[in-house]
């Protein structure tokens, strides 16, 4: 049968299949050493706490009926209370009214795009930046400008600056306190909203935590009403990504509008998932974070050590203080997307860095996640990958 | 502290708080007789099946880790297979590739709006129509035109026609086979996509099921590739709304694009929820539907009988063959939103019909859900409400 030629929206006409999706499918192959996804190691999920929380949610008829029923768009109150307390511990004077529970932190980005972006308006991001943020925001047809060169902006002054200050996806970099204050000042001058994506913030392995931009923004205030930071948090990297529970915290003037937009997007986040995540977080968030930090720290160390041992001349890489990613630049203008094809045949996967640049640059960069593999597999994978890069560089040099 | 005056997108500037949200909050008050939400009776949830399915999802470490991990955007394959078989039983030759699992059927509407609507393009709906569809689509700034008077359309020919053929929200009406074929023919002439919202389709109490528009569209074909209907299904009215699991089924050319848009919206629907809904549906979907049909049928009969007994002169109402709603028109130009304020003081709630009209008409209409209350409470609630309407009509007549 012949497919119909439908008239799609302008945004949908621009949609392209993402390489990431195809890569994620490879993770399931047992022989594959995957440095690809920003995926937690499932062996670290706290199954006991989840089992207990589910048992509780379905323990008696009354609570089970609540768990299976519709609930309010803003989210389950005990969870919003837990999140508000968590935000307070980070120096952000939040109340539950400042918190909207989202279907993963990805949804926060979608709702924020809906709230702020008109076609042609400008979004400031780092280059590179989180691919999922580019995907979410792109649906509302903005232009992207480099947050470090904002003079290169079109007609509409930026309304939105998106940053990931701690252990950024994809670079693993951490913004200094000065850089955070500069971003805040820049946003104030532009009257822009800052989206502070804190997906990896809990996963610090070295050094001292820096204040979040939300905390700097609220500095000394008793509430968030005159602030401009939307802090986007996630349980995906700490407790479980499959539960799809995240949050956004900010001034109620914005949170209320985001809540209305969420109602049209999915009515509310699954009731039972919010109840379970609340139970698990209340019972053991800090312990869980301590536990996974120590595992991921060793894996980061193993990856950095293997890179130091095997990297060919001209290859450079970041040394992240936390998170899941090392960011590398390849020598000799090697195209990372081409390299990936050969790497996959050698049972190693990563994400080519070009996907993280709004303008398609960065073709000789790649993102390596150390979260999913143990130290021995990291050693083997980095060895294989570096060997492949070395061969490719030599072949390029020979044919040049 | 002074709130900041942010520059919001055009769509966000037009956002208004919904009366529905406030109404839903009243449902929790024990003395309230609520005819307001399209909310299933939680006493009818099959707790045993959900408990068993959760137990299975967390039964062993391997399956529990899968349940808590990221999964693919298109959805859990066994669930997509179950849905494809379900669609086949409705005369729609679907394969799992025709199915995208969504975070409730509300998300399907959001994604379809993103896929098809540019600012100013036209969406055809019945008048009145589902409030949540108006909310979802409005975020993409279309104009709305009456599907029964499509000549009244602006510059852009309609790309999208939204209908709920079975026991529509809010009217309870069912489209005849002839009307379904006419809608299909109209969409073909316009080259528009039909969104067939089947949220209530399983809840038929009388008469014989009519073929879905998706089935009429695919009539005799071996696959869906030349069809134009996106069938939006939901487990919310049959198994559980709190799980937030729905689906959209249609030609792969559209399903693939919707999948890309979903990736930016929330990555994927909760893994464990898909596994649990699959288990529950596989174990007892048909039995559950039989059971709730018989309960809701009695409640519908109780509401229609009470209306026949107590309705004041000039009040008219629909006689639905299924679903959850009776639609009423009030005599003497009574404003249903005003009536609601007094009804709430008398512990009865409903939804004023005006909210379901894109143009704000229908102020003398209201939607009554019979799903949540038992027969005795329906009797009392309808008595109180009719008394209030009668008094209001008399007072209006006296003051005229």
Task: Write up this protein.
The structure is a homodimer of 400-residue chains. The termini of chain A are far apart. The longest helix of chain A has 40 residues, at 271-310. In chain A, the strands form three sheets. In chain A, strands 2-8-7-6-5-3-4 form a seven-stranded mixed β-sheet, with helices on both faces. The first copy, chain A, has two domains: 10-45 and 287-399, Aspartate Aminotransferase, domain 1, CATH 3.90.1150; 47-286, Aspartate Aminotransferase, domain 2 (3-Layer(aba) Sandwich). In chain A, helix 7 (131-138) links the parallel strand 3 and strand 4. Chain A contains 13 helices and 13 strands. The relative contact order of chain A is 0.16. Chain A is an alpha/beta fold. In chain A, 44% of the residues lie in helices and 12% in strands.
User: What proportion strand of chain A?
Assistant: 5-15%
**How many beta strands in the DSSP annotation of chain A?**
13
Please name the CATH architecture of the largest domain in chain A: 3-Layer(aba) Sandwich
Order of helices and strands of chain A: HHEHHHEHEHEEHEHEEHHEEHEEEH
Key terms for this structure?
homodimer, 2 domains, 400 residues, 4-stranded antiparallel sheet, Aspartate Aminotransferase, domain 2, globular, Aspartate Aminotransferase, domain 1, 7-stranded mixed sheet, 13 helices
